[in-house]
């Protein structure tokens, strides 16, 4: 089943846990979404943002003990929408990006696809 | 004193005597030291003492200076001293001086043939309780009774004062031992009296530095001032106990936590007049609470992350299981592998693990059976890398046991690693944290790890990639920012990992 809202969408996955990244890829590939990444560190994520070529990002708030504030700042500055994924509560989010959508771990595939459909650029 | 001198008037029989405990029951024993050289006069005194109700007098008579000094020196204990004024080898004033020095609490009454007003005044000034002239010996009863009652009251008061002082000392000791400061606020003046510990809790050496409530407030952290004031107001108006915590910044700039407990004080009309209580520096407790909170948050994060991993394992196991019947065993075995990794990391306080420990976790039984050889220099792994590598080894070993080298009698596995210089793609260079000095020339030191199976049945490459292959080829390659080659050679499965050294993968 392909969700029309996710057609021709490319998503950057920023996630340091390979099992979770693979699971995200599975869920998105099933919907016909193109996946970039996963980027498992802040520096890799920043490089991939520099390279571009995606519409929206899924952003784990903590990569190998490092906060992703810099990644969120860069995405926001580039006008690229993003959705946080986190095992922490909302208080763990970067201060400047509290208003961004958040999906708590563990999540359903549906949570991801619906959030991407809602927040993808028109 | 004037009243005592006006000795011609007898005391009414009631007033202080009504409270005399002797009136209630058995006679009060009363030891008397009598300094009297005349036997007749001594008998007269005894006679009059006997007429006093409610007392059982035991008289010890002494006639000389030395005997008096001995008796006083032995301490009695006496309840009363009666003394003649003129003695052959002694005089009453000297006896008085000795008695006041040795037995200051015992009433001392002169009983004398003639005394004269000047001597009487002098005697009272020097501490005599009263005097009786022998011509009016009937006064002895009144004077003795009064002296005894007054002495009892005085002694009682002294005992109470002593007990109070002791109790205060104990309280002060307890407060100091418990590092409890004490304070009292007077509402009408806003004056604050604090103990030195109370001041020390705020980093001050002098309690006078917080002599008013306003000066105390200056010491309270700006963010807690409003709350502090509100709590104090509430305690005053409600009468409920005050119990609050606030932050304070010491003069040295350090932040401390204070706990304050107290209660309002009211006058007889029920109007609050003040507030008093104790203060305690709870900074250590607060720091422990903060640590605990951080630990709980970290635990929550780990549990959520682990649940997400379990969910991911379940989903991917389900996707790749040949049949629904194959799912439970494959899933449970992967869960157990995850749990093993957690056990090992917990033993290492989540500070990472060594590569050989991780290899042993999966392969130890086979090593003992002589089927597996593990060799390589010491390498440290961070927790995330350790878990990923362990899950990869688990997949390789499970596959080997089902289809590969460990499924055949003579099959074996060689797992070896070394640190070797490798050339790495430029794109990956910036992402890795290899600090070996070779990075600029396009080569860096890396962990090169080889898994080689041999002696098993001929390998048939799988038609589609399973969970294990995907985890190793995709997951591990991404996680470790390295190169992974997984080959299903017909002679045996081979896997080669090349992982640039970094803070996550480092030689010991």
Model description:
- The complex is a heterodimer of chains A (122) and B (508).
- Chain A is of the alpha/beta class and 122 residues long.
- In chain A, the strands form 2 sheets. Chain A has a 5-stranded parallel β-sheet, sandwiched between helices. In chain A, strands 4-5 form a two-stranded antiparallel sheet.
- The longest helix of chain A is centred in the first third of the chain and has 13 residues.
- In chain A, 43% of the residues are buried.
- Helices cover 44% and strands 25% of the residues of chain B.
- Chain B is built from 15 helices and 20 strands.
- In chain B, strands 2-1-3-6-7 form a 5-stranded parallel β-sheet, with helices on both faces.
- In chain B, helix 10 packs antiparallel against helix 11, helix 11 runs antiparallel to helix 13 and helix 13 packs antiparallel against helix 15.
- The longest helix of chain B is centred in the N-terminal third of the chain and has 39 residues.
- The two termini of chain B are 95 Å apart.
Please outline the helices and strands:
The complex is a heterodimer of chains A (122) and B (508).
Chain A: E1 10-14, H1 18-30, E2 34-39, H2 42-51, E3 56-60, E4 62-63, E5 66-67, H3 69-78, E6 82-86, E7 102-104, H4 109-119
Parallel strand pairs in A: 1-2, 1-3, 3-6, 6-7
Antiparallel strand pairs in A: 4-5
Chain B: H1 2-5, E1 28-35, H2 39-50, E2 55-62, H3 65-74, E3 80-83, E4 86-87, E5 90-91, H4 92-102, E6 108-112, H5 117-125, E7 130-133, H6 139-177, E8 180-186, E9 191-194, H7 196-201, H8 213-219, H9 222-238, E10 242-249, E11 255-266, E12 272-281, H10 283-320, H11 327-347, E13 353-354, H12 355-368, E14 372-375, E15 379-381, H13 383-402, E16 412-423, H14 426-429, E17 443-454, H15 467-480, E18 483-489, E19 492-500, E20 505-507
Parallel strand pairs in B: 1-2, 1-3, 3-6, 6-7, 14-16
Antiparallel strand pairs in B: 4-5, 8-9, 8-12, 10-11, 11-12, 13-15, 15-20, 16-17, 17-19, 18-19
């Amino acid at each position: 089943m392909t969700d029309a809202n996710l057609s021709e969408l490319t998503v950057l996955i920023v996630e340091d846990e390979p099992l979770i990244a693979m699971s995200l890829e599975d869920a998105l590939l099933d919907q016909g979404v193109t996946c970039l990444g996963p980027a498992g560190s802040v520096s890799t994520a920043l490089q991939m943002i520099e390279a571009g070529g995606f519409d929206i990002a899924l952003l784990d708030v903590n990569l190998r003990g490092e906060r992703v504030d810099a990644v969120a700042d860069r995405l926001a500055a580039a006008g690229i929408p993003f959705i946080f994924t986190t095992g922490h509560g909302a208080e763990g989010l970067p201060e400047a990006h509290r208003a961004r959508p958040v999906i708590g771990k563990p999540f359903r595939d549906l949570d991801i696809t619906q959030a991407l459909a809602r927040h993808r650029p028109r | 004193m004037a009243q005592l001198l006006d000795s011609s008037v007898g005391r009414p029989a009631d007033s202080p005597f009504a409270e005399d405990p002797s009136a209630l029951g058995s006679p009060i024993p009363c030891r008397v030291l009598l300094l009297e050289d005349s036997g007749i006069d001594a008998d007269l005194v005894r006679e009059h003492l006997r007429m006093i109700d409610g007392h059982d007098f035991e008289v010890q008579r002494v006639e000389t200076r030395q005997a008096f000094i001995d008796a006083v020196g032995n301490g009695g204990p006496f309840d009363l001293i009666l003394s003649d004024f003129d003695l052959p080898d002694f005089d009453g004033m000297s006896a008085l001086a000795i008695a006041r020095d040795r037995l200051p609490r015992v009433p001392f009454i002169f009983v004398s043939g003639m005394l004269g007003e000047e001597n009487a005044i002098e005697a009272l000034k020097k501490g005599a309780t009263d005097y009786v002239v022998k011509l009016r010996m009937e006064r002895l009863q009144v004077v003795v009774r009064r002296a005894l009652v007054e002495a009892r009251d005085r002694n009682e008061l002294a005992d109470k004062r002593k007990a109070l002082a002791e109790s205060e000392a104990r309280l002060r000791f307890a407060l100091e031992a418990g590092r409890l400061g004490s304070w009292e606020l007077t509402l009408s003046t806003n004056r604050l009296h604090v103990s030195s510990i109370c001041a020390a809790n705020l980093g001050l050496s002098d309690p006078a530095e917080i002599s008013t409530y306003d000066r105390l407030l200056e010491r309270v952290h700006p963010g807690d001032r409003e709350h502090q004031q509100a709590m104090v107001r509430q305690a005053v108006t409600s009468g409920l106990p005050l119990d609050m915590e606030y932050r304070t910044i010491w003069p040295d700039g350090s932040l401390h936590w204070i706990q304050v407990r107290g209660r309002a004080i009211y006058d007889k009309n029920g109007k609050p007049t003040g507030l008093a209580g104790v203060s305690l520096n709870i900074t250590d407790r607060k720091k422990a609470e903060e640590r605990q909170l951080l630990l709980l948050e970290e635990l929550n994060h780990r549990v959520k992350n682990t649940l997400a991993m379990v969910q991911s394992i379940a989903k991917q196991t389900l996707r790749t299981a040949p049949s629904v019947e194959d799912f439970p065993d494959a899933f449970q075995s992967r869960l157990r592998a995850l749990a093993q990794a957690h056990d090992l990391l917990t033993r290492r306080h989540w500070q990472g693990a060594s590569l050989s420990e991780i290899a042993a976790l999966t392969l130890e039984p086979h090593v003992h059976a002589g089927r597996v050889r593990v060799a390589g220099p010491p390498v440290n792994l961070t927790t995330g890398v350790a878990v990923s590598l362990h899950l990869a080894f688990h997949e390789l070993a499970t596959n080997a046991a089902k289809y590969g080298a460990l499924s055949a009698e003579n099959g074996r596995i060689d797992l070896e690693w070394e640190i070797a210089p490798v050339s790495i793609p430029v794109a990956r260079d910036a992402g890795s944290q290899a600090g070996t000095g070779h990075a600029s020339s396009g080569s860096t030191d890396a962990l090169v790890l080889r898994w080689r199976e041999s002696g098993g049945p001929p390998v048939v490459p799988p038609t589609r990639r399973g969970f294990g292959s995907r985890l190793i080829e995709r997951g591990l390659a991404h996680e470790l920012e390295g190169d992974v080659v997984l080959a299903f050679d017909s002679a045996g499965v081979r896997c080669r990992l090349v992982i640039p050294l970094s803070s996550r993968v480092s030689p010991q």
